[in-house]
Amino acid sequence: MSTLLLLPGDGIGPEVCGEVRRVAQVLTPDLNVEERIYGGASYDAHGTPLTDEVRDAALASDAVLMGAVGGPQWANAPRHLRPEAGLLNLRKAMDVYANLRPAYCFEALADASSLKRELVSGLDIMFVRELTGGVYFGQPRGIEDLGGGQKRGVDTQIYTTAEIERVARVAFELARGRGNRVASAEKSNVMESGLLWKQVVTELHARDYPDVQLEHILADNCAMQLVRAPKQFDVIVTDNLFGDILSDAAAMLTGSLGMLPSAALGAAGKPGLYEPIHGSAPDIAGKGVANPLAAILSFEMALRWSLNRADAADALLAAVKAALDGGARTRDLGGELSTAQMGDAVLANLGR
Ligand code: ATP
Ligand code: MG
């Protein structure tokens, strides 16, 4: 039996994860769903956002689904004990190096009149962002005092062949199940790490994935193309920094924050870490109005990528589409449904 570890966290996390729990009971009754406290809630109870026990439970599970962590009440906690530190430590412990961030637009939301924003109907991009290397981790880093009132801020971008190859492999594998196209974004014209990135991706492609169409694109041009003609892309693989920026930009072409899931994957057979991209939303926490679809779609990704249940994932995705087609809208989508009512709408469409 597979185990899903739920870490609801803080703010709206417990509310949206409650809907995941209801969906799992109906869709995958044989799935063992465990739950632990985590984030600010764990800091309050145990003095740390991630206890060793919870970390070990995560490593022993088949997939971890998080709600969100953090909130204003923990802003003055020591930096290494803040809820967000618990998230970084969990990512590190699980060694999840490939961040999958889909940017797709549900047809039912495409007119977007209620969102007061322009969406891109038919958009369906999968970002694969390198998550555990690059400039966010490279040494040396820090702020040095140069004297005379001058300081120097230093960051270092480092990528090894192995780090590039393993994340690129994830992108090529994914592409085979989709549009069979990968765009690899870097700045090989000005960065040595970008040049190595391009070489390693080129070699891996020639060796193992010649059937997949590969395009190398400079990251600045990729940003431009995402605004100009975003539907040209299928899978985009890129480093930690560019992936952070490019995937956020593309996310805004698809609708509400409340709709967007993500996955972080490590080596084959190791548990993946799934979470909505939204935060703990303290402004609406406890009101029962948060959109649970980002969390429910994160569960959909967990079913597909860690739990070996593509059939259940397909059924869940279809149920979400049907609920939206039927007019189900939480407040962030311009409607009036509560968190639980949106959960009801998905449940009502499961198995149809
Ligand atoms: P964090 O720093 O934790 O990422 P944030 O400041 O980026 O937090 P969020 O917590 O994601 O922001 O919230 C941003 C805005 O989006 C808030 O107004 C919040 O209410 C809204 N929001 C976020 N998630 C949802 C959701 N699931 N349903 C409805 N509204 C949401
Ligand atoms: Mg945020």
TrEMBL record:
Its cofactor is Mn(2+); Mg(2+). GO terms for molecular function: 3-isopropylmalate dehydrogenase activity. Mg(2+) binds at D220, D244, D248. Its EC number is 1.1.1.85. The record marks Y136, K187 as: Important for catalysis. Residues 3-346 form the Isopropylmalate dehydrogenase-like domain. It catalyses: (2R,3S)-3-isopropylmalate + NAD(+) = 4-methyl-2-oxopentanoate + CO2 + NADH. Keywords: Amino-acid biosynthesis, Branched-chain amino acid biosynthesis, Cytoplasm, Leucine biosynthesis, Magnesium, Manganese, Metal-binding, NAD, Oxidoreductase. SUPFAM superfamilies: Isocitrate/Isopropylmalate dehydrogenase-like. NAD(+) binds at residues 71-84, 279-291. Substrate binds at R91, R101, R129, D220. Pfam families: Iso_dh (PF00180). Catalyzes the oxidation of 3-carboxy-2-hydroxy-4-methylpentanoate (3-isopropylmalate) to 3-carboxy-4-methyl-2-oxopentanoate. The product decarboxylates to 4-methyl-2 oxopentanoate. Homodimer. Belongs to the isocitrate and isopropylmalate dehydrogenases family. LeuB type 1 subfamily. PANTHER family: 3-ISOPROPYLMALATE DEHYDROGENASE (PTHR42979:SF1). This is 3-isopropylmalate dehydrogenase. It comes from Caulobacter rhizosphaerae.
